[in-house]
Amino acid sequence: MSAFGETGKKSMYEIKIKEKIEQITSLEDIKLTTPPPGFSGDLSSNAALAAGINPRKLAEALNELDEVEKTEIAGPGFINITLGKEALEEEIKEILSSPALYGGGTKKGKVLFEMVSSNPTGPLHIGHGRGAAIGDSLARIFEKLGYDVCREYYVNDTGNQMQLLGESVKCIQQGQEVPEDGYRGDYIKEIASGLRSSGDLSKAAGEKILRMHFETLKNFGVEYSSTVYESDFIRAKKVEDVIEKMKNKGLTLEKDGALWFKSSQFNDDADRVLVKNDGEFTYFASDCAYHSDKAQRADHLVNIWGADHHGYIERLRAFFKSFGYAEKKRLDIVLYQLVDLKRGNEKVSMSTRAGQFVTLDEVLDEVGKDAARFFMLMRSSDSPLEFDLELAKEESSKNPVYYVQYSHARICSIFRKKGISFEDVKPSDAQGLGDEEREIVKFLAHYPFLLQKCFQLDAPHLLTDYLRQSASTFHKYYDTVKVIGSEKERQRLALLKAVKEIIKDALGLIGVSAPERM
RNA sequence: GCGCCCGUAGCUCAGUGGACAGAGCGUCGGCCUCCGGAGCCGAAAGUCGAAGGUUCGACUCCUUCCGGGCGUACCA
Fold it and tell me: What's the ipTM?
């Protein structure tokens, strides 16, 4: 059954063709491609080759579909499919009848996203922005597909770094030198001067910094539905509980005055300390409690982590296996590589020493939310990201954000010029599309499959590429065809509305606005 | 040393085994009596880091090697 089974969008031709191929070949999750230049046809399949069956047999079966006009066998057994016009028109009607639902789904399981989760000891920097952009956009895609999504912020408000924060604030307040490995920089001075010198300074400073984090993230278009504190897990004895359970399962050992989790029995390189010989819990111990808690609350967990935490993955997975969660729950850990800031050809220093780092606030102030979010998703999370502040600000077609937003504004402008609103377009207006519209319709029809791919690969960056192609496909089409005043004005306006809706939807999924004028 | 990620056009990067490897930028050359030129069209540009292997078929999977980044705490 296709991933779209629950949506009821049965008129989508790619689904019908896929299902037919899967039925004939017994293959699962086959993919359709586009024939290479020089070959005719709209879609192409290698399924006969892959399944080792006679391509003619599959081609004949496909010919029986209403959506298929004809098929051709090419090369070693590829089948090139030409779609019927009705199938293409149906697709546009589908988009127009419920734009927001196109490619979406309903009633799926609960997914819990953990993202950013920075220590409350300093401002969020540009790297956190990448994590937030990836996590929030992926969360939006999951929501669109029908999942019940929770965005959660886990606050590491215990441990050495919090004590150091308190000490740093205290030193500043008393006009003393900040400790060697303490926190400095302008932000900490501001916080110190805004706090009373009595009470729990580390707690007060941490809360203040956390509020700053949420403020920044809100400006970045990211809103959380839940915040959890490491200190609460400790206070509520949840860390003790999980360690007790580990002991009972025979998963621990004592060595050198510390308590260890036997994670090497579950594919980790080494055993890991849970309770230090001074009696304190490690970060890992509270993380086990936290992930145990998350596993009770959701079917599918997604953690967005900076690549510098990759060494942590195996021990967490080891914990998941040892508690039997691994079989029942899906745990995705999305790692993202670092961000290199540039200004034109100049590298911007990212040293964290002495508080000299580029904060997310600074980037937002300089380039704005739309450009920042778009740029953060221009690369696969596996690749380092080169972020050019100069380009992000540029108001020209060199800047992909403007290029895409412009295509949206341009379509809005055409409707203004014609003097009608988008609501005036009816799905039935798509009736009678011509061959000139073929390419662009096929491109739009692929949107739901792109969303599936984003979902399957945890790869929201595919959307930025799709958006650039959407804009380009539209501009090319619009350059060759007359819309207002043409014989096919009604059909073409309907098509433009469909393009506009898909671009708006996709921009929304990456948290970028779709302006009607620029 | 070990582990993870990366190595594809001058630059930045797409490409979850299939037909001749793609895009943006940059370079060069075209297109504004015409709905937004913030646009479009064309050209030059590649031994997909190297070598083996698996396969009817490899940028993609496996092995080894060479570069670069990041980890490798009783820190978080």
Answer: 0.94
Q: Classify strands A148-155 and A226-229 as parallel, antiparallel or unpaired.
A: parallel
pLDDT beyond 70 at A11: no
Tell me which protein residue sits closest to nucleotide B7, measuring alpha carbon to C1'. Answer: A383
**In the numeric block, which tokens belong to residue A75?**
């090369």
A188 CA to B21 C1' distance (Å): 52
Residue A290 confidence (pLDDT): 97
Q: Contact at 8 Å (CB) between A491 and A435?
A: no
Q: Residue A20 has which token pair?
A: 């037919």
CA to C1' distance (Å), from A338 to B12:
15
Q: Say how many residues make up chain A.
A: 518
Tell me the pLDDT tens digit for each residue of A359-401: 999 999 999 999 999 999 999 999 999 999 999 999 888 999 9
Nucleotide nearest to A452 (CA to C1'): B16
Lowest mean pLDDT, pick from A182-196, A424-438, A456-470: A182-196
B6 closest protein residue (CA to C1'): A383
Domains A13-83 and A400-509 share a fold: no
Beta carbons of A65 and A15 less than 8 angstroms apart:
no
Q: What one-letter code names the amino acid at A452?
A: Q
Q: In the Cβ-directed half-sphere of A511, how many Cα atoms lie within 13 Å?
A: 30
**CATH number, span A13-83:** 3.30.1360.70
Q: Do the beta carbons of residue A459 and residue A381 sit within 8 Å?
A: yes
User: CA-to-CA distance for A392 and A363, rounded, in angstroms?
Assistant: 10
Distances (CA, A) of A109 to A3, A222, A297, A329: 14, 22, 11, 11
Q: How far is the CA of A380 from the C1' of B64 (A)?
A: 28
Lookup: nucleotide whose C1' is closest to A275 CA: B74
Tell me: the pLDDT tens digits for A146-166?
A: 999 999 999 999 988 999 999
Q: Please name the nucleotide lying closest to A256, CA to C1'.
A: B74
Is the domain spanning A400-509 CATH 1.10.730.10? The answer is yes
Question: CA at A464, C1' at B64: how many angstroms apart?
Answer: 37
Alpha helices in A428-488 (DSSP H): 438-445, 447-457, 462-480
Protein-contacted bases of chain B (C-beta within 7 A): 2-7, 12-16, 18-20, 22-26, 35-41, 56-57, 69-76
Q: What are the boundaries of each domain within chain A?
A: 13-83, 400-509
Strand arrangement of the beta sheet that strand A258-261 belongs to: A252-255, A258-261, A272-275
pLDDT band at A356 (very low <50, low <70, confident <90, very high): low
Contact A157, A206 (CB under 8 A): yes
